[in-house]
């Protein structure tokens, strides 16, 4: 596995990939943060495309990513992550919406668990999934990060600076 760091407006992200594609984006804080394993090799040259696309996303000029993805998960998780890719930029949906889209209307909790296990946040936009009542719900990078990403996509990101508690 190759790794590098990426300086973003929401903190330093750790990127990990192999020959199959991008496997992880890891937030600096929150429930999904982790230390990079020692056996991962630091090679920034493997991340030119994803770094460029993230630069464009944070600049507000990219809404869809083209980088090759290689997330690992169960068949159900991968189906949820695929559904997330269809949630348009600056739009939101609920866990129930995704469950219905997958033809499993009673699977909202399972969708939530798969959403929470997404190893490639931002690019696979799990931040666009909110609670049925419109409330922001759990996010691996923390709720302030989720709020910032949603505001950024609505063109409101420049109205407040991100601070991670």
Describe this structure in words.
There is one protein chain. This protein has 5 helices and 6 strands, in the order E-E-E-E-H-H-E-H-H-E-H. The chain is α/β, with parallel strands linked by helices and about 160 residues long. The protein is globular. A hairpin with a 2-residue loop joins strand 2 and strand 3. It has a 4-stranded mixed β-sheet with strand order 3-2-1-4, covered by helices on one side. Strands 5-6 form a two-stranded parallel ribbon. It has helices at about 50-60, 75-85, 95-100, 110-115, 145-155; strands at about 1-10, 10-20, 20-25, 40, 95, 130. About 30% of the residues lie in helices and about 15% in strands.
Short description:
The protein is of the alpha/beta class and 165 residues long.
Helices and strands, in order, run as EEEEHHEHHEH
- What is the total tally of β strands? 6
Helix content: 25-40%
The amount of beta strand, in percent, is 15-25%
Q: What is the overall pLDDT average? A: 90
- Structural class designation: alpha/beta
Span between N and C termini?
A: 30 Å
Please mark out the parts with pLDDT under 50 across 5 or more consecutive residues, or reply none: none
* Rg (C-alpha, Å): 15 Å
Coarse shape:
globular
- In spatial order, strands of the major sheet run 3-2-1-4
The DSSP helix count reads: 5
Biggest sheet descriptor: 4 strands, mixed
